[in-house]
Amino acid sequence: MKRYQSTLTKMTRPVCMALAALLMVGAMASCSENENTETAQSDNAYLSLSFSTGTGNSTRAGETSGKALADNETDANPTQESDIHNIKVWVFKSNTGDEATPISYKAETLSEVKNGNYTLNLRFLRKIGGKEVKNIDLYILANSESINMLDQMKGKDLSSVTRKDLKEVSFTSPFGINSDGTAETKEVPAGKGLPISRAITEISVDSHVADTEEGAKDKGIKIPLVRAVSKLHFYFARKKGNDANTSQVKVTRIEVEGNTIPTASYVFPDEEEYDENGYNQDVTSQKYNSATTYVLDALKLEGVENKDIKEVKDPESFIKKDQTAQEYLDAFKQADIGSHDLCYLRETNKAIRGTIYYSLDGGTTEKHETFNIPSEGNAIRNRELVVYGYFLNGQMGKLTVTPTIQEWKDGGTFDFIDASTNVVIPDKDQTAWGYKVYYGFPKLGPMITLKDIDTKGKPWILQTDNPMFGFVECDKDGNYDDHKDPVYDPIISDQNDGNKIIGYTYHIDDFIINKSGKKDTLYFYVVPKSRLDLAKPHNVKAHVFLTKYPNDKFILNPGFKYNGCKEANSPVKIFTLNKYYKDNRK
């Protein structure tokens, strides 16, 4: 038996940057700045950018790095993911359009790598063209060498680039896929770090900038910087004990589908207006469109040998539940379940789908299972993408898919604990299209188990998109009442008006609804409602899916949207069926 869990967690506690209007001098760094040094003191505005690479999102300037993590945050691991090697900052006057050039620019290369607090100071003119600057916008980029920023700007003077130049600048390498399918970046680039950026608008000069060094001391704002990449890695475990027969199981290879990573990803996320009462965490990119091109190559990752798949007493205990993201990863570490195939990837607005190939017999035969990390159109940036797979039995051939409900919220914030369930499907007859089911013989098809359906009290409905199919509920052993619904004599005569009962059979539901939203486990078969009649051709294929009731989507498996779903709130299928007739029912 083998399970997979695909989990999308917020990446490694993003680097945080706080702006505190406090002039600091003597920074040990080489720097360049395009400020006017001949202006009167009263014409200058002083701005101090205090960058914090504490351990996560919730760490801000002036707070300790031991600040508690938010539920959807994980620590930087390794800590080099938060290193700052150099900083570039562009200051624009707000509401000046795409062709505007900076009113100030500063670049500093740190003499030593900073993984804690660092302060960059810059100065700009309080008046431009005789008019006072009321609000400013900031474009901030750390570790520009990791993406060869100078090359991406095609030789332009960085101090005079336009806002449009920064909005549109992208990078094609690294953090992508090599021509042989391997990952370009498997560790944080030494001496360069990861690209970290942000674009924030409408920062009030009166509130956060001062005319003198002394006046700036008590002013400040807090803005988190985020990485322009995400990281993907895998965890595997197998059940311990001779009766589990997992001594021969192994992962033979992993592939992430091609046509997923853009050929060029944007350096900066979309501009976000500064919210003094918020935390400005929600960062994504909506710039990708129908003209975007993608790397066609699949990402090919190595397999995991049996000796490297940790034996544990209960692999199911490591399924993502309602613990925090960091608690989830800590559980792997505490059990010595190692991470595999770590790679850093450029952001993408597409779902990340792939296939894990595995063997139960040491490699003699190969099976596979898919995974899906959805994006719903929001670019995946600064995320930690975790796929957990495990083996419960090496000989039974029983496959269990364990998805975790994943939704993007509020432009990029991810909510882990919306809902969850385990989909259990025994290895019954399958075609390339789906599982076979049989008219008149429910038990010849697979008994489906939805374990511990947890929607946090929200009602749900189990349905199929083909009305020729229905559901037969059963108990955990697969048994059902086969003398529940009457069977009528189809031959109409003087003695039979169509209501003559000649026997009883099992009951078929068109759908199954749980209006209370109570956490529950559901056992059922899917069956055709009628014999195959070649004189009346009909669709013999169906998708089965679970949705919130009424009408709202929630994702139940790492699968694809069924044909015809075009809406953003379309349901996602659990599995597919192919009608097959062993028609001996009388």
Automatic annotation (TrEMBL):
Residues 1-29 form the signal peptide. Keywords: Signal. It comes from the Bacteria. Residues 57-81 are annotated as: Disordered. The keyword Signal applies. This is Major fimbrial subunit protein N-terminal domain-containing protein. It comes from Segatella copri.
